[in-house]
Amino acid sequence: MADNAPQPATVVEVLYEPPDAFQQRLVFNKGSKAGIAAGMPVIDEGGVVGQIVRVTPMTAEAALVTDERVSIPVQVLRNGLRLIAFGANTPGTIEVRYLAANADIREGDTIVTSGVGGLFPAGLPVAKVTAVERDTASGFARALAEPLAHPERYRHFLVLQADVAQAESNRKEAEADGIAE
After folding, report:
1. I need a labelling partner for 135 at 20 to 30 A (CA). Which of 4, 7, 92, 157 fits?
2. What's the CATH code of the domain at 110?
3. Which of the four pLDDT bands, split at 50, 70 and 90, describes residue 165?
4. Based on the structure, what is the number of domains in the chain?
């Protein structure tokens, strides 16, 4: 269930897209002077666009959720199944890997942020499942999904003011307790 409390956000505008065929990134017109820090989520009206990965005083660079170096804790809206979504090798695609072959995920399911980790608030739309590939021989499955955000359509986005330091502290604490991966 999503927390309906308002979360501070900063409006940013795209300055340019770095010309790198191996990364899917956007560079914005605001940076650390506007309170933006690496790790903060970027959203548009459709849902999660990506995550801030690099910040200067006047600019910020975000990796799109479709970038293969990005992973986000998510869950299936229909049943609450928790997963990790990764950018895929195929442009414009998100992939959920390492599922049990009998995992309850199907074409048409909506994937939303789970809130695990503390950076992305729970309930933000991420993607719609377009295909599920099950390999009974290996016992694993993977799902392919189409992002619900459309960064190619817009110039302005919101950067959610997440407490990056607190999220990192929580992650390290969980690791020390043997809870995290």
Report:
1. 92
2. 2.40.10.350
3. low
4. 2
Q: For the segment 16-26, what is each residue's pLDDT rounded down to a tens digit?
A: 988 876 778 99
Q: For residue 181, what pLDDT is reported?
A: 43
**126 in a structural domain:** yes
Note the pLDDT of residue 171: 57
Confidence band of 94 (pLDDT split at 50, 70, 90)? very high
Give the pLDDT of residue 78.
Answer: 96
Domain assignment present for residue 172? The answer is no
Give the model's pLDDT for residue 2: 46
| 125 CB-near residues (< 8 Å, 6+ apart) | 46, 47, 48, 110, 111, 112, 148, 149
Cα–Cα distance, 3 to 167 (Å, whole number): 17
Residue 91, in any domain of the structure: yes
93 to each of 66, 86, 87, 145, how far by Cα in Å? 6, 9, 7, 6
The whole-angstrom separation of Cα 88 and Cα 147 is 11
**β strands within the chain, DSSP E:** 9-16, 25-28, 41-44, 47-55, 60-64, 71-76, 82-87, 94-100, 110-113, 125-135, 140-147, 156-160
User: Per the domain annotation, does 175 fall within a domain?
Assistant: no
Same domain as 88, residue 51 = no
| pLDDT above 70 for 176 | no
